[in-house]
Amino acid sequence: MARPAPAGQGWWRDAVVYQIYVRSFLDSTGDGIGDLAGVRIGLPYLRKLGVDGIWLSPFYPSPQHDHGYDVADYRAVDPVYGDLQEFDLLVSDAHRLGLKTVIDIVPNHCSSAHPWFAEALAAAPGSPARARFHFEDGRGEHGELPPNNWRAMFGGHAWSRITEPDGRPGQWYLHLFTPEQPDLNWRDPRVAADFDDVLRFWLDRGVDGFRIDVAAGLFKHPYLPDSDDPEADERTRDSVNPLAWNQPEVHTVWRRWRAVCEEYTARDGQDRLLVGEVSVPTAAEQARYVRQDELHQAFFFHLLSAPWNADRFRGAIGSALRDIAGTGSTVTWVLNNHDQVRSVTRYGGDSGVLGSPRARAAALLMLALPGAAYVYQGEELGLPEVLDLPDEALTDPIFLRTGSRRYVRDGCRVPLPWSGKASPFGFTAEGSAARPWLPQPAWFAEHTTDRALTDTSSFWHLYRDALSLRKQLPQLGESSLRWLDSTPDVLAFTRGDGLVVAVNFGDHPVPAPVTGQPLLSSAACPTGVLPGNTTAWWIADTRTLQ
Ligand code: NOJ
Fold first, then answer.
1. Helices and strands per DSSP (H, E), number in the chain
2. What local confidence, expressed as pLDDT, does residue 2 receive?
3. How confident is the model at residue 325 (pLDDT cuts 50, 70, 90)?
4. Which of 80, 154, 235, 313 is the most exposed place for a label (fewest CB within 10 A)?
5. Distance of CA 402 to the CA centre of its chain
6. Is 277 touching ligand 1 by the criterion CB < 6 Å?
7. Which residues pair with 537 in a beta bridge?
8. Is 446 a catalytic residue?
9. For atom 5 of ligand 1, which residue has the closest CA?
10. Of residues 144, 197, 226, 263, which has the active-site annotation?
């Protein structure tokens, strides 16, 4: 029996949401770029997989300097992805299939093609139009030096100088990512008011929630002082400059957004979700974002960043459950997204061969943890990262700005393989002149959805079986997790009444920590044995749980 989420009681609390990177999901028009109509075509596939909802990466009009995380209009659809009518059809199709629809919203910065920025460039220093952004005079005799020493996350200075309308070199504006993504000034009340309106625009169209980009951003230290370690963000590619991120005022915005969502819930009893990309150093700090009147959830990235190691996973899980779940929210687990090297490749070890078994084991662990989980498209196919895209194919602004392939994100964004033996693998209609916007390697043939659906040993079947058990087993709902004693390479825990989960992070088989009825495992388990790099779920004999 499925456990439907009752209206108004938090469908998101233990939901599994599938992240759709729209440009790489399915192309219905033959231009080599995925689109909203393609998403509609793929919805039955996701329903079959058994997820509870979808999160759509940005589809707004955008010059695509950061593939839509540079928004030129927050109330429209980029023609490359479709139009508002197509969006409405997508939401209604998703709802008919029982899938919640969460959209991405990008409040920290907009695109330099946004009308507000054009207005600011045309206006004078100190004008109300400039006040929506962070425009400052430069330092140095002629203002030729940036206002402070901050560096941008994607490389280079966090400030760019403009030419004033009269042709003279002028003020500088702040951009924590690329120069095409000017940061908004959230101390200007017009910014906050406009975003309230944007939320309502999409809520009125039926969306079930928002994934909030850079949710620890928005406010900068009011005096914009120099940083002691200006290269920290660029070096770590993480939001660690304490003057630029995680300022206390940001919480006022999440309270305000929560109130807008509650307004809609009060009307129809349906929960809306605010899930934040909250990159802060500790789980305890993250917990502050999911207090009762702020965000419902925040992605917990510490599992994603942990190496394949029992202690590191135990530590990450423990701190999440203690600090985040302690707020009344639920932990939002993630192993993959559009910014990270795919788990099959991350866990591969030197030879790479361990990547698939470990990624399967990690997935079965994540799907057994209390809380919600996000699955990134292709994760259910066991797709490895594409590591050998030629430089000329790369589009990630991190690469374009730094020339370094160290953090390049194109490799996890290659268009999905659906069918066939050669590119475009059903992503783009056969015979269309356009090629997929990133080249697909020949080995994608082993990972097509068609193939995964027919092969019962595929990643897809593992995810499908786990998602189906999540719906059937009450233990996998809100019940707590209790650690069991285990050997150093093994994590073992119970969920609720008698469900036991164990992960062997080592390479060698160990005795199974319980006797009982095996439910599901990421690799074949001989009776009484837990092979290396494997997760298994059992309903334990109660005797073995003392
Ligand atoms: C986080 C998004 O996930 C990433 O793709 C984007 O580049 C940055 N935020 C900037 O918006």
1. 15, 18
2. 38
3. confident
4. 235
5. 23
6. yes
7. 501, 520
8. no
9. 339
10. 263
